[in-house]
Amino acid sequence: MSTGRPLGLRTKIFLDGGDPQQTKAALDMLGFLDGQTTNPTLIAKNPVVQDYLAKGAKYTEETAYELYRKVVTEISALLPEGSVSIEVYADQRTPAKTMISQAEEMFAWIPNAHIKFPITAEGLRAAELAVKAHVRVNLTLCFSQPQAAAVYQATRGAKRGDVFISPFVGRLDDRGENGMDLIKNILQMYRPGDGHVEVLAASIRTMEHFLCALQMGVDIATVPFKILNDWAARGMPIPGDDFVYRAAGLRPIPYQNLSLTRWQKFDIGHELTDKGIEKFSQDWNALIQ
Ligand code: E4P
């Protein structure tokens, strides 16, 4: 077991996973943990769920949500000072109204929830209403700078700590783009702003992603257990100025000059957001008979 948060660590460290046993193990291993993010795919990978499905059983919609609630309740009890992200069910047809009613229900499950909405027109509308109703939010499946500008605009007026945005690094890398550039660009665009949106680096797949996110001073990084384990084994290093992120073979994502102050309509469509919604909804629906 480690002694806790390393001196000089500015970034909050979240576990990316759907298994409370891993939360316990990560806490023991690091000696601290600032929160956790879940999503429908991660909940479907929970070992209890996998054992249940292996017996040929299926959930009903009601028991699947009971299970999600039980999982995040256990995680929340382990991280009473932290934040736990819970994702609404959304497919291409889910309207903002349905997302909002799910969000209100999920937000009442635990005292430290952030509710995840996809960055689509309906998801943004739902997040805007959620923020007005003092529901903490995490805008997920972010793949572009205009999406991040739209999130900033839609959640204006919220207090710092209540709004996260989750740019997905690994999924951009998967298609040959340098996902870390998106994080860098969003941090740069938000810098002159009022700080009400915290940048949460998600889809972290490698130690290099994680170290680069720490070097950039991202607000939050959500990290799979395996990488946290490796980080702990290396003595929880925080990279200095001499760390160089190697994005060999990945196309750079150029910075776009977008104004956060002047009202603008941003083009928030992105193929990977659509694909992400499809995969999350498929993985969730596969649990249900
Ligand atoms: C967390 O909030 C995200 O859902 C997660 O990091 C996605 O990771 P993946 O792209 O490896 O599935």
Features:
about 290 residues; alpha/beta; TIM Barrel; 8-stranded parallel β-barrel; 12 helices; 8 strands; about 15% strand; globular; binds erythose-4-phosphate
- Compute the separation of the termini in Å: 42 Å
The percentage of residues in β strands lies in 5-15%
Q: What best-fitting shape do the alpha-carbon axes yield? A: globular
CATH class: Alpha Beta
Helix content percent band: 40-55%
Q: Helical element count? A: 12
CATH superfamily: Aldolase class I
The value of Rg in angstroms is 18 Å
Average pLDDT score: 97
Which strands sit side by side, in order, in the main sheet?
Answer: 1-2-3-4-5-6-7-8
How are helices and strands ordered from N to C?
EHEHHHEHEHEHEHHEHEHH
Which architecture name does CATH use? Alpha-Beta Barrel
Number of domains: 1
Could you tell me which ligands this complex binds, including any ions or cofactors? Answer: erythose-4-phosphate
CATH third-tier fold name: TIM Barrel
Assign the structural class, choosing from mainly alpha, mainly beta, alpha/beta, alpha+beta, or little secondary structure.
Answer: alpha/beta
Low-pLDDT parts are: none
- What can be said about the biggest beta sheet? 8 strands, parallel, barrel
**Number of DSSP-assigned strands:** 8
